[in-house]
Structures are given as C-alpha cells and as structure tokens.
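INTERNAL AUDIT FORM
Audit reference: QA-55
Scope: verify that the stored structure record matches its stored sequence.
Auditor: D.O.
Record contents follow.
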Amino acid sequence: MRQKKRIPWRSVLLVLPAAAVGAALGYWGMSWADKLGGGDPLKTAGLLLAGLALAALAYFLQVTVHEGGHLVCGLLTGYRPLSFRIGRVLLVKLDGRWRVRSLHIPGTGGQCLMSPPPQEHPPYRLYHLGGGLANLLLALPALPLCLGTQLLPLRVFWGALAVFGLWLAAANLIPMKSGGIGNDGYNAQNLGKDPLAQRCLSAQLWMNASLLEGYSLADMPEEWFTLPQGADLGNPMIAGTAMQAASRLIALGELEEADRAVRALLARNDLLGLYRLELAGEAIYCALVLGRRREAERLHTPEVRRYWRQTLKYYPSRVRQAYAWALLAEGDQGEAEKLRRLFEKVAARSPYTGELAGERRLLDRAEQAFRPAQTP
C-alpha cells in the first residue's frame, strides 16, 4: 500500500503569508512609481528599478546578518570560525590569515562554517538559532522606522528590511523540514534527541576544519566516518557522514569498495537531491575507471550535466569527474587536456588544499585507465 504524502503545513503557512506580503508590496510599489512618475513610462521604470535595488540591498543585508548571527553565537559557545560565505564570495581562514575565495553551492545564499569545541557533546542550540535571532533583531526596529519616515526611498528600504528579516527569522526559527532537510529551528530542537546525528554533524565540521588545515580525508581519524549497523541514513546528517566515508575510500584509492558504497547510497529513495547529484559524479568516475562505461552513461543524466556546469569552476573533484568522462566515455583527449589545465586553475583557488594531492592521483588513475584502451 502506498503511503499518503504528508502536506508540509508549516512550510505552506510560511510561504502563503510571504507571497501575500510580496504581492502587496509589489502592488504598492507599482502604484507609488506610477504616481511619482506622472505618467512618464521611463521615469516610472527608473523609480521601479530604484525600489528593486533598495529591496535587493535589504535582502543582501539580512542574509549577511543571518550568517553573522551564526558566527557571533558560535563564538559565544566555543566554536572556531572556518569560513563565511555570502553568495559566491567566500572568506576563509587559511594558514592563520583570512583570504577571499569563490565558492558556489546551488540553492544556498550563504553559509557560516565553524568548528565545534573538541568534546563529546558540543553545544549546538545557540549556534543554530543565531542566524534567525539576528534577522529578528534587525527586523523589529526596521518596522517602526519604515512607518515613521516620510522619505519614500527610506520607507522602501526599511520596509523591505523588516519583511525579509521577519520572513528569514520565521523560515529558520520555526522548526520544519523542507525537501527532507531540517532548518535551524528543527536542528536546534531535535539534535539532542538523536546523539548519532549530533555526532555526525560535529564530525563533518571537524572534517571541514581539517581539510582547510591541509589534511586529506585519508589522513583523518576513521571513527569520524564510522556508522553503527542500521544507522538511519534517511537523516541528512547521518547520510552526510556516509557520503564522506565513501569519499574517504576514493581518497584512499580503494575504488572498488568506494563504488559499492556509493551505489548503495544511490539505491536509496530517501536521499537528498543535492547528495544524489554529488554521489552520481563519484559513481560515474568509479564506473569509468573500473571499465563500466554503460553504467556511467546511464548516470550521466541532464541533471548531472547541469550540476557539473554550475559547479565545475569551484571544485577540483568536479573537474576530475568531468576529465574522466571526457577521456573514458568520449575519448576526447583535447577536451581532457583542457580540463586538466582547468583543474590547476581551480586547485590554485581552492581553500581545501588537503584534497589536491589525492585529486591529482585520481586524475592520473583515469589517464592510466585510458591508455590500455588505446593499445592496438
């Protein structure tokens, strides 16, 4: 019997008011621009663009404040800052100094990554709630400022700041899941109920810190990647550790074992879409190097190709996967050579220096798999 899909009422109740407020603001903005424009289409269009620019500035400010809230609350609870990203601009600590890099994670507007204190049960609630609380703290004074000013540009800016702040606060503080992923409020409420998920989250943050410090996944403690028999891989945090365990096997060069682990994860129906795209790339690489071209072709879907295009300039591992595809699936040595040069450019910008030596070995392994196929 098929299970009935549950309607995510909290998400619906959050989206509907936001849509209503957005429609009201859009109508008000159009009326305001038309009135001030005096019927001149060019003037009206210019006023609308100015209003949209102010609204975009307000949204950017609230996203920045959100990630800043995570940062401040993390510092207050003993976390160590690792990176701070808004859009594609990444501020990351390398060799004791903050440096600017570029990184793109589809579907995210920003991210503040920190390393929890080295203890069995690190604090987590304030770190997770900090972003939404910061949005709320900025939105509450913005609302009276919007209502109290007579200057229309300031009214637009303060109003947008209040609306975006209240929406981001509600979207992050009201516990809910969207697409299988728990928001900050959900994690703050439920991590303590699942010690394994809490341990997995801490381990993944420690892994990230180690990669930034120049270590490879192969160098890290095995217990960070070990899951008990029957672990709930439907939980994204636990599944994330399972993914990292498979990536560690690839970094160790144990492709047959890694291939089995990746295929087992891809066979699940409850895997997050982003996880599935990441794993599909590794499955394609393993299948090609291990001589299963047809399987790689089946996995090389339009969604995977689009994801590769979106992330190719940011991840050495993605260039390595595309390199294996060009060489072992298409036999295009010219394209493979271009990707090899691109790899060096991406590697030079990558903050995760610990993975680069291993990625180069994996590139060489794909080339070695190609050479026998060229032997007459």
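Auditor finding: record pair retrieved intact. The chain has a mean pLDDT of 85.
Action required: none
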